[in-house]
Amino acid sequence: MKEDSITRRNLWFFPLGTVGRDMVYNLITSFLMLFVLYTKGLNIYTTMDSQAQKVITEQFKKKKNFPSTTNGKGTVESAMVVTEVGTGEVKAMVGTRNASGQMLFNRATNPRQPGSSIKPLSVYAPALQKSFEYQEDGETFKFKNTGYDSQGASGWGSYITVSSKVVDERMKVNGQYWPNNVTRTFSGYNTFRTAIQKSINTCAVKILAQIGVEYSMDTLKRFGITTAVDDTSQATNDMNLAALGLGAMSYGISPLEMSTAYAAFPNGGVVNTPICYTKVEDSSGRTLLEGKSQTTKVLDEGVAWIMVDVLKSVVTNGIARDAKVDGIDVGGKTGTTDDRFDIWFNGFTPTYSIALWIGTDDNVQMDSASEKAAQLWSKIVGKIDRAKDGEYKSMPDNVFRAWNGEYYTDGTAPPEPEPEPEEEEEESKEGEEGAKPDDKKPASGDAAAAEKKE
């Protein structure tokens, strides 16, 4: 067998199950599949980056990398998935910290509550995409007064953009004061960018209310999130502000699907379905299966490029500073559930999209929020050789940097404000009233132009 064929366990049993499923679906009965698999033998060429797999496994064994439970009971577990940008190839997957064997519970494919790590997928990217579509159709964004807050439909501009004004204020939704921010305070004026940098809950809910839960859910599904419940006939579903705005979902999202979804940002808005093998051969070398990723265009390339820039700033200037990796710019988003049962960091480099979840199987509170996940993500990604390869896509032709230093897709930037008129100083006169114009002195100086503000 060739390098990266399935010759090692190391928790890499996911491709084996996938191959079995695909063989049953495409070729043979389950009984015959088992017979071939265990008596005839197969060569399964996986997509694994063995160095990345080894790094994750080693770091998962170190107790110091993980938080503890607040009551001292329960085991803190973790799962991590590395997906290659542009191919959908799963390069590493670890679904437990310490166990070994084959028939293990794989937390990497198990949905958990995502907290705020859902916001780029269900709030911020959809908002920019919807504005892009309105502009393409020659329309402006149809803002509305939701009745939840005092800002209403004002202050946004013609479109939702990275510089749109979003006021962090107390909101009343369905008769209740909600949502709260982690700080339990309200900071007033923010922009789209600073709101995601600080992960302000009120701002995320406001933006979601403007784009609508239907549009948000549709975008989330196209990102490849299969566990979001859009059937409103079910008593419990995710067609609401809490699920799509803050990640309080019916079932949650798996690290595998998070990794797949976040890869769309550096991939120009295109989602690749995950694959874990490239080819399966029988013992005679005959090809039985080929792994092929399917693609879905979720975001305009310009919108995706702006989201990469925004998510990088969450790491450089926001709450995810712990995720910085020496030698490369990374982007991503933290996530913490209210009870600290689940903490996340999901992010990307030019080459890899990496999702990390930490939590307990029995929903026991931990003594750390998402900063612990960001720290471990940084440590692991910094040790993965190929994670530092490659370059981000160049700025697309339909994106430009405007007068205020922000990036926009064509036609969505706010107009540059008119400069304030310069103050004119009264000319002094040397002589008495009636002096000749030539006798007048020049003004003592021009007033400085007013600073431009959005």
Written description of the protein model:
This protein is α+β, with helices and mostly antiparallel strands and 454 residues long. The protein folds into two domains: 1-112 and 254-301 and 314-393, DD-peptidase/beta-lactamase superfamily (Beta-lactamase), CATH 3.40.710; 113-249, Beta-lactamase (3-Layer(aba) Sandwich), CATH 3.40.710.10. 27% of the residues lie in helices and 17% in strands. The protein is built from eleven helices and 16 strands. It has helices at 14-26, 30-40, 50-60, 119-136, 192-197, 201-211, 213-222, 241-246, 255-262, 301-317, 371-383; strands spanning 42-46, 76-84, 90-94, 165-168, 172-173, 176-177, 188-191, 270-272, 277-282, 287-290, 295-297, 331-336, 342-348, 352-360, 399-401, 407-409. The strands form six sheets. A five-stranded antiparallel sheet has the order 3-2-14-13-12, with helices on both faces. Strands 1-9-10 form a three-stranded antiparallel sheet. A two-stranded antiparallel sheet has the order 4-7. A hairpin with a 5-residue loop joins strand 15 (399-401) and strand 16 (407-409). Helix 4 (119-136) crosses helix 10. The longest helix has 18 residues, at 119-136. Residues 1-12 and 427-454 have low confidence and may be disordered.
Outline the fold blueprint.
Blueprint: H1 14-26, H2 30-40, E1 42-46, H3 50-60, E2 76-84, E3 90-94, H4 119-136, E4 165-168, E5 172-173, E6 176-177, E7 188-191, H5 192-197, H6 201-211, H7 213-222, H8 241-246, H9 255-262, E8 270-272, E9 277-282, E10 287-290, E11 295-297, H10 301-317, E12 331-336, E13 342-348, E14 352-360, H11 371-383, E15 399-401, E16 407-409
Antiparallel strand pairs: 1-9, 2-3, 2-14, 4-7, 5-6, 8-11, 9-10, 12-13, 13-14, 15-16
Helix pairs in contact: 1-2, 3-11, 4-6, 4-7, 4-10
